[in-house]
Amino acid sequence: MEIIRYSVKERGKLLKDIPVLQKMCGYFTPLEEWLLEKIKNASDILYAVKENEILGFLIADKKETHLEIELICVSIKGREIKGIGTTLMKVAETIAKEYRLPEIRLDAQFEAEGFYKKLNYTNYARDDHGVSMKKAINA
Ligand SMILES: CC(C)(COP(=O)(O)OP(=O)(O)OC[C@H]1O[C@@H](n2cnc3c(N)ncnc32)[C@H](O)[C@@H]1OP(=O)(O)O)[C@@H](O)C(=O)NCCC(=O)NCCS
Q1: Ligand 1 pocket test target in 115, 118, 129, 132 with most atoms within 8 Å of CB
Q2: Most buried one in 11, 20, 21, 111, CB count within 10 A?
Q3: Whose CA is nearest to atom 9 of ligand 1?
Q4: Atom 24 (ligand 1): residue with closest C-alpha?
Q5: How far apart are CA 77 and CA 123, in angstroms?
Q6: Which CATH number covers residue 116?
Q7: The pTM is what?
């Protein structure tokens, strides 16, 4: 399996993948318009690919104070392989370091709190939409 990081310049070719990416997220299906906007403008898009099949993806956006994980999803097949989500999150940590940002955050997430806890993320806020979590990055 390889992790591919797409620069903003290369994003046009990813738009055809939107239906595949939507399917990957289980019952939480991201809106097409939302994905379109993120694919075009988010600072970082990662794909986990094996034999030309996308098994997972991560969308992150560079903010002034932190790197925001906008979305991470692994396909049903990818979840059987184990470790793909963890690998994508580790690559996001190296990206935060590259940007010299001290923190990674994810907002209003409700489905996979246990997954992030295993990666040492802690809760810092909670509202009706879910919990917000963060992790300090040693630059
Ligand atoms: C959450 C998700 C990205 C994790 O990816 P993954 O490749 O399955 O995760 P990993 O194989 O790296 O799992 C690492 C650990 O987290 C655990 N874990 C995985 N998904 C979990 C979840 N939803 N809740 C709690 N723990 C979870 C695994 O069991 C594993 O534990 P272990 O180390 O004790 O075996 C993936 O399951 C997914 O896409 N889920 C649907 C969409 C979603 O919930 N996205 C996140 C919210 S936006």
Answers
A1: 115
A2: 21
A3: 85
A4: 112
A5: 29
A6: 3.40.630.30
A7: 0.95
